[in-house]
Amino acid sequence: MWDGFWFLGNRRAWEKLPADIREVVAKPINAAGMGERAAVLALNNQLQNKLAEQGLAFNTPDPEPIRAALRKAGFYSGWKEKYGERAWGLLEQSVGSLS
């Protein structure tokens, strides 16, 4: 289960910082977030292996039929328009082509 990595700050104060300072601060924050994701993934994999050893079956469904239905309904194109090319590109780097 992913519990998220929340790092909160004051947007107005953040935007007042010079870009080079924001970069110095953001780099370790982003690294910590990625580290947290890796740790959660490792824990999930360990738990899945342990449960599989105890006889629990895990299904890995094919996502393509639901993705095709979502494409046909315009779901992906609508969200791509709302989020923009940059955000959509980041999403597709993780999950593959959606639109």
Q: Could you walk me through the main structural features you see in this protein, from its secondary elements to its overall organization?
A:
Keywords: Signal. By secondary structure, this protein is mostly helical. It is built from 5 helices and no strands. It has helices spanning 11-16, 19-53, 64-72, 75-83, 85-95. The longest helix is centred in the middle third of the chain and has 35 residues, at 19-53. It is flat, with a radius of gyration of 19 Å. The model has no long low-confidence stretch (mean pLDDT 93).
Question: What distinguishing features does this structure have?
Answer:
99 residues; 0% strand; 2 domains; single chain; mainly alpha
- Shape verdict: flat
Instruction: Count up the domains.
Output: 2
Rounded radius of gyration (Å): 19 Å
- Overall pLDDT: 93
Strand content: under 5%
Which structural category do the helix and sheet elements fall into? mainly alpha
- Low-pLDDT segments, ≥5 res: none
Please give the alpha-carbon distance between the first and last residues. 27 Å
Looking at how many chains there are and whether they match, the oligomeric state comes to single chain
Pfam family, one: DctP
Keywords: Signal
GO biological process, one term: transmembrane transport
InterPro entries: DctP_fam, TRAP_DctP_sf
